[in-house]
Amino acid sequence: MLGDENGIVQRITGETIGLTGEFQHNLDAKGRLFIPAKLKESLGSVYFVTVSMDKCLSVYSSDSWERLSERVSAMSYTQQRKVRPVFAVASRCELDAQGRILLPQNLRDFAGLTKSVTVIGANNHAEIWDTDTWNAKKSEEMTPEHIAEIFEELGF
């Protein structure tokens, strides 16, 4: 595997296998967010933005969203109902000429996004956090003890 300066880990073939990095940006008055060039290359020009298990938004490329949708479609109706909120509020977003996406108000409200945001790579998707919320979460999760505990729990 190769690491590159674009925050994307790639196989030699060029296939993207993970989004990485942390990027600071501001929402404009209309709720538009500039997508970092280091992530655009991997995500493409059409994204699906939805709620997350944390107080942030998850951003999926069209391909990742399609795989998620296919996986959910294969579930029983009872299981599908459990993930209904993820699809109910999801928004298809396209880059404008300046490389921004418009985040709908309901999604901004869910994640508490007002002005300062942090966009992070999270392997198969990106996440959009209010910067203060991300900094608190990062302080909690980015300790040697916590990382060691997670690696042990996951069998690494």
Low-confidence stretches: 1-16
Q: How many domains would you count in the coordinates?
A: 1
What is the radius of gyration?
A: 16 Å
Note the overall shape.
Answer: globular
Distance between the termini: 18 Å
Provide the structure class. alpha+beta
Predict the CATH topology: Chemotaxis protein chec
Query: How many strands in all?
Result: 11
What share of residues are in beta strands? Answer: 25-35%
State the CATH class.
Answer: Alpha Beta
Q: What is the level-2 CATH architecture name?
A: 3-Layer(aba) Sandwich
CATH H-level superfamily? Transcriptional regulator MraZ domain
Strand order of the largest sheet: 4-10-11-7-6-8
The helical percent reads 25-40%
Gist of the model:
38% of the residues lie in helices and 29% in strands.
What topology emerges from the helices and strands here?
Elements: E1 2-3, E2 8-10, E3 16-19, E4 22-26, E5 32-34, H1 37-43, E6 46-51, E7 57-61, H2 62-73, H3 77-82, H4 84-88, E8 91-94, E9 100-102, H5 105-111, E10 116-121, E11 126-130, H6 131-141, H7 144-154
